[in-house]
Design brief:
The complex is a heterodimer of chains A (116) and B (116). Chain A has 116 residues and is an all-beta fold. Chain A has strands spanning 3-5, 10-14, 19-21, 24-26, 32-39, 46-52, 60-61, 64-69, 74-79, 88-96, 104-106, 110-115. Chain B starts with a strand and ends with a strand. The chains are: A mainly beta (116), B mainly beta (116). At the A-B interface, strand 5, strand 6, strand 10 and strand 11 of A face strand 5, strand 9 and strand 10 of B.
Chain lengths: 116, 116
């Protein structure tokens, strides 16, 4: 079974600065997908960014980018120019490439605080 | 696109009562997932369906929980009888299976269940 580990329960960053959230995972599969979701106080789960394991290029979405290290099974999220609206719980998630095992497995989350 | 629609948004009930949570997935999505979120256990998959057929229900806690998907546009999660330990936020999510299983899950706003 796959597992996802987020070792930072809480992080804080000054507004406009850069912060990196860590995620590691354990799998024996070679093809899979990784995601970061954001959950603000409204509790809505919002997709931030997605990475296919077969792609070496790191995904980028505006101020959000990832550092995907397949050999190390590491998938960190970098938020540049942090804004107050970025304050939320951030969840790293893994999805298998195998039909019949299509669930998302989540980490325990990192609570990000933005300091004005 | 209306997104995944869950009802009710909040549910407060007494121990022993039956609770039914409802979900309407995004039109055209043929994978549907039920997750439960608690402080202690984080986000855990309860059950998921492909084309209205349950694929993995290993996360369903016990016989008190049941889920159905009578058609492509509706699913229910029922708890009978409810217990205080069932208090949690229950999320429904859907994804477009035909576009490849690397598609992200789209989440509803969740139902916060409180059992007293």
């Amino acid at each position: 079974a796959q597992t996802v580990t987020q070792s930072q329960p809480e992080m804080s960053v000054q507004e406009a600065e850069t912060v990196t959230l860590s995620c590691t995972y354990d799998t024996s599969e070679s093809d899979y997908y990784l995601f970061w979701y954001k959950q603000p106080p409204s509790r809505q789960m919002i997709l931030v960014i997605r990475q296919e394991a077969y792609k070496q290029q790191n995904a980028t979405e505006n101020r959000f980018s990832v550092n995907f290290q397949k050999a190390a099974k590491s998938f960190s999220l970098k938020i540049s120019d942090s804004q107050l609206g970025d304050a939320a719980m951030y969840f790293c998630a893994y999805r298998s490439d195998n039909f019949g095992n299509e669930k998302l497995t989540f980490g325990t989350g990192t609570r990000l605080t933005i300091i004005p | 696109d209306a997104g995944v629609i869950q009802s009710p948004r909040h549910e407060v009930t007494e121990m022993g009562q039956e609770v039914t949570l409802r979900c309407k997935p995004i039109s055209g999505h043929n994978s549907l997932f039920w997750y439960r979120q608690t402080m202690m256990r984080g986000l855990e998959l309860l059950i998921y369906f492909n084309n209205n057929v349950p694929i993995d229900d290993s996360g369903m806690p016990e016989d008190r929980f049941s889920a159905k998907m009578p058609n492509a546009s509706f699913s229910t999660l029922k708890i009978q009888p409810s217990e205080p330990r069932d208090s949690a936020v229950y999320f429904c999510a859907s994804s477009p299976k035909d576009r490849g299983i690397g598609s992200p899950l789209h989440f509803g706003n969740g139902t916060r269940l409180t059992v007293t």
